[in-house]
């Protein structure tokens, strides 16, 4: 007997409609639907991935709580948004380090959005202190870093000039200019609604594990 899918196409229908009706009144009327199509399946996914995550590292957390856990809030912080729209129109699930202070720590991540799903891993927008630690680790372990970096198309923003204090002639200078150290693997909507989602997610995370391990250790975190 095959396993049942965790998410179903109702997830994407809900997100499309939320994008068209991004207001508190519509969301209040559809709150039960949000719980059924997003929160409950997300809790099942987080719990289901937990034993696989433990095999990667005992120091990363799968927290299946509906609030303040691995599932990101659907509510936006409108204090810093230009459009004032109150809700995110995607679903984000993070598996971060137990000592990670915020979303900018090493992470495994699932992004769910109609025709825009992906798995990501690494460090996104680290602060200057964390950036310096990662860059210093690259300088001290250039061969190890190059072997890891060659496996991915690293994403994110980068400096136009070498960072202050680092040799512009270093063989890894292109990566030393990076401000993000993230890789990703795309998923299609059918994969997300497949019984094989946890398998596909685990496989994608496994390919990016060396990147997470390197950045975690560079930041002085256990892996």
Can you describe this structure?
- The protein is an alpha+beta fold and 223 residues long.
- It has a single domain (10-218), classed as BirA Bifunctional Protein, domain 2, CATH 3.30.930.20.
- It has 8 helices and 4 strands.
- It has helices at 10-20, 24-29, 31-56, 128-140, 142-149, 173-176, 189-192, 197-218, and strands spanning 91-96, 107-112, 117-123, 181-187.
- Strands 1-2-3-4 form a 4-stranded antiparallel beta sheet.
- Strand 2 (107-112) and strand 3 form a beta hairpin.
- It is globular.
- The mean pLDDT is 94.
A few lines on this structure:
It contains 8 helices and 4 strands. The protein is α+β, with helices and mostly antiparallel strands and about 220 residues long.
Features:
223 residues; alpha+beta; 8 helices; 12% strand
Number of domains: 1
Helical percent range?
40-55%
Characterize the biggest β-sheet.
4 strands, antiparallel
β content, as a range?
5-15%
How many angstroms separate the termini?
A: 36 Å
**Count of beta strands:** 4
Low-pLDDT stretches are: none
Order of helices and strands: HHHEEEHHHEHH
| CATH class category name | Alpha Beta
CATH superfamily: Protein of unknown function DUF1054
Mean pLDDT: 94
The second-level CATH architecture is 2-Layer Sandwich
């Amino acid at each position: 007997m095959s396993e049942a899918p965790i998410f179903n196409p109702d997830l994407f229908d809900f997100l499309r409609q939320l994008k068209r009706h991004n207001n508190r009144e519509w969301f209040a009327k559809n709150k039960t639907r949000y719980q059924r199509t997003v929160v409950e399946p997300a809790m099942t996914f987080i719990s289901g991935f937990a034993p696989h995550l433990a095999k990667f590292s005992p120091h990363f957390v799968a927290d299946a709580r509906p609030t303040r856990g691995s599932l990101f809030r659907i509510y936006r912080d409108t204090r810093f948004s230009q459009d004032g729209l109150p809700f995110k129109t995607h679903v984000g699930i993070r598996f971060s380090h137990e000592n990670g202070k915020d979303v900018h720590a090493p992470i495994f991540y699932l992004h769910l959005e109609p025709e825009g799903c992906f798995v990501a891993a690494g460090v996104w927008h680290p602060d200057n202190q964390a950036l310096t630690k990662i860059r210093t680790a690259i300088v001290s372990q250039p061969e190890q870093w190059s072997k890891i970096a060659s496996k991915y198309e690293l994403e994110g923003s980068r400096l136009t000039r070498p960072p202050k204090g680092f040799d512009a002639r270093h063989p890894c200078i292109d990566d030393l200019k990076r401000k993000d150290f993230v890789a990703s693997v795309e998923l299609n909507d059918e994969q997300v609604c497949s019984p094989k989602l946890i398998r596909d997610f685990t496989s994608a995370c496994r390919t990016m594990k060396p990147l997470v391990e390197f950045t975690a250790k560079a930041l002085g975190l256990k892996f």
